[in-house]
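New to this. Help decode the following:
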Amino acid sequence: MSVNLSTMLREGTKKSHTAAENVGFVKCFLKGVVEKNSYRKLVGNLYFVYSAMEEEMERHRNHPVLSGVYFPELNRKQSLEEDLQFYYGPNWRSQVRASEAGEAYVNRIREISNTKPELLIAHLYTRYLGDLSGGQILKKIAQTAMNLADGQGTSFYEFPEIPDEKAFKQEYRQRLDETPIDQATADEIVDEANAAFGMNMKMFQELEGNLVKAIGTMLFNTLTRRRSRGSTEADASLATAK
């Protein structure tokens, strides 16, 4: 039996999707306010999340339900490693750790892989379809906001093995609809997708404190420079008056 899983996921996660977009960190990102230290911490968390997701998918590549959505060309682990090397340097492995929210996310992926692997579909859908849909826009925002040269620190957004992202997404949705599951399992997958959005939101929320602090420092430094310039100009005027 198969169900229209792609539509169920799209319609069933609309509220969660909107909520995720309205987290402060994401709203700032979309407006072009990106602080490098916060961003690299996010990349670090994503590295652990995708590593877990891709390791479990590799383990279940012949699973009767998961085999249909097994696409190694989507894998992000290697691209995230490249980005982490850019942000942290060659010794990045000794510096990068999953945050509390990131660790909880990884633990959930491991848990369902061992108890009900079909639910991994929810995490694949939430992450990969989002990456393909908005990746290029986010890449340009990151490049502009952090003054990055093309190809530096944004490998995560590149899918060299997927030349036509729109066509690929159509194929992916078709595979979802062909997945041999019953209605009850489909409902569970939608519930898990909403939970996945929640886990992503918690990772974003952890970064908001760092972002607010960085923005405050930036504004303070800007105001200080302006006051300093104003004071210098005033001194010069006084000297001329004398």
